[in-house]
Amino acid sequence: MGASGVASFLKLVLKNFDILSWPVVSLVYPLYASIQAIETKSAVDDQQWLTYWILYSMITLFELTFAKLIEWLPFWSYTKLIFTCWLVIPYFSGAAYVYQHYVRPYLVTLQKTVNIWYVPRKDPFGKQDDDILTPAEKYIQENGTEVFEKITHKSRDNISRSIHYSPYEDDYRYDDYTQW
Fold first, then answer.
1. Are 19 and 81 spatial neighbours (Cβ–Cβ below 8 Å)?
2. pLDDT band at residue 121 under the 50/70/90 scheme
3. Of 61 and 16, the one with more pLDDT
4. How far apart are CA 77 and CA 72, in angstroms?
5. How many CB atoms lie within 10 A of CB 50?
6. Residue 21: which of 75, 85, 68, 102 has the closest Cα?
7. CA torsion, points 120, 121, 126, 131, in degrees to nearest 10?
């Protein structure tokens, strides 16, 4: 392989740099770092890499959804590579920044607006095995109304405390990455 062969090879590598480096930057290094994070006792690196994988999934879903549009953008692969480097490189902690400033506020507001109601299924033959009142009445018959009232008051106290609680309101922060 002469000088022209080496030059052709380098030209090919540089021309396809984004295609060759994308799997290393977006998969190989994050997989390695995720395994290392699992093996440590620190929650900081666990959250960094869980956040990265959430964002990686979002990027992948975006690409799958808008594939026809993206193929018309000439610098999409380079933009995606640079953005992924920013997410992955620990110096920048881009994944933590995006999660703290964009994903987390959306999830917190979404959680407050979603209500899940228990709706029993109706049996067409008149039996309602999925009715919530039947087990409650059975419990009252077995244990008495005082015990049932005690349980309901306890659950009301728990509900009133949990109304203002969000699982995202823990005291934990991504080190000093919130300074951005």
1. no
2. low
3. 61
4. 11
5. 15
6. 85
7. -30
Q: Going along 40-170, which residue ranges are E strands? A: none
Show the DSSP H helices in 16-132 as ranges.
17-23, 29-39, 43-65, 67-70, 76-88, 94-98, 104-113
State how far the Cα of 55 lies from the Cα of 98, in Å rounded to an integer: 8
Q: How far is CA 125 from the centre of its chain?
A: 43
Angle formed by the axes of helices 43-65 and 76-88, nearest 10°: 170
- How many angstroms separate the Cα of 115 from the Cα of each of 112, 130, 132? 8, 20, 18
Give CA–CA dist 51/54, Å, rounded.
5
The one-letter code for the residue type at 130 is: D
d(CA 174, CA 92): 12
pLDDT of 43 strictly over 90: no
Sort residue 40 into left (φ over 0), alpha (ψ -120 to 50) or beta: beta
Residue 46: how many other CB atoms lie within 10 Å? 14
